[in-house]
Amino acid sequence: MEIEVKYAVPSEETVSDILTDSFWDELAEGEALETVPLRAIYYDTEDRALRKLRITLRVRSEGSTAFATIKWGGTSKGAVHEREEVNVPVPIEKASEIPDMSLFAETPVGNVLKEAAAASPLVPLMVMQFTRSRRRIRYQGNVLELAVDRGDIVTPCGTSPILEMELEHYAGPDPLAVLELGEIAAERYGLELEPRSKYSRGLALLQKAEERTETAKEDAE
């Protein structure tokens, strides 16, 4: 289960304020701040079968490692996102290839994925390229990850910048500790809640392009 809270970061100056603030040093879980390059490719069938089933499929490389990931179900309340998630390691040299659905055969949605992919080919929808600066912290008996992402969502229909802060719950008795600490951070740095996932923002770009295409077709008739 993935439980995280997201905030839009207004500027690079604010990014620097977050990453250099001793406030986080006092909560650190013993790991230094780490910055890694990430590249994620998101897939769906040509008829968007996975989107209709509320399933997200991606392959993401993180430095020298790569994972195929599915997310499904869950809820989004304000900036708190909660979804089921399964990550499966894949060879780094296959990080740009369409994933084999047999990787997820043992998951609760394995059969649904297999049927959807069999009915219509998987195609890449968008690529996300960004750097993530992250560290583990401890807050009220919970282990969380603080992450700041900077980069771009790239689709065939346009791009959208990524500049956001996330707090994700990893362990501990209270998953909603991410929201309490997030509210402290929001007030400290002047952050705004970000209710949209990166993927939903990419889908919005694609949808706008599809709507423009439909309008053009109607005007031509």
Percent strand equals 35-45%
Mean pLDDT: 91
Could you estimate the helical fraction of the residues in percent? 25-40%
Q: What is the fourth-level CATH superfamily?
A: Hypothetical Protein Pfu-838710-001
Number of domains: 1
- Please state the CA-atom Rg, rounded to the nearest Å: 18 Å
**SSE series:** EHHEHEEEHEEEHEH
N/C terminus separation: 48 Å
Topology, pairings included?
Layout: E1 2-8, H1 12-20, H2 22-25, E2 34-45, H3 49-52, E3 55-62, E4 65-77, E5 80-90, H4 110-119, E6 122-139, E7 142-155, E8 158-171, H5 177-189, E9 192-193, H6 198-220
Antiparallel strand pairs: 1-5, 1-8, 1-9, 2-3, 2-6, 3-4, 4-5, 6-7, 7-8
In short:
The chain has 6 helices and 9 strands, in the order βααβαβββαβββαβα. The protein is of the alpha+beta class and 221 residues long.
Could you name the key traits of this structure?
globular, Hypothetical Protein Pfu-838710-001, disordered C terminus, 221 residues, eight-stranded antiparallel barrel, 6 helices, 45% strand, alpha+beta
Could you describe the 3D structure shown?
The protein is an alpha+beta fold and 221 residues long. The chain has one domain (2-220): Hypothetical Protein Pfu-838710-001, CATH 2.40.320. It contains 6 helices and 9 strands, in the order βααβαβββαβββαβα. It has helices at residues 12-20, 22-25, 49-52, 110-119, 177-189, 198-220, and strands spanning 2-8, 34-45, 55-62, 65-77, 80-90, 122-139, 142-155, 158-171, 192-193. An 8-stranded antiparallel beta barrel has the order 1-5-4-3-2-6-7-8. A hairpin with a 2-residue loop joins β6 (122-139) and β7 (142-155).
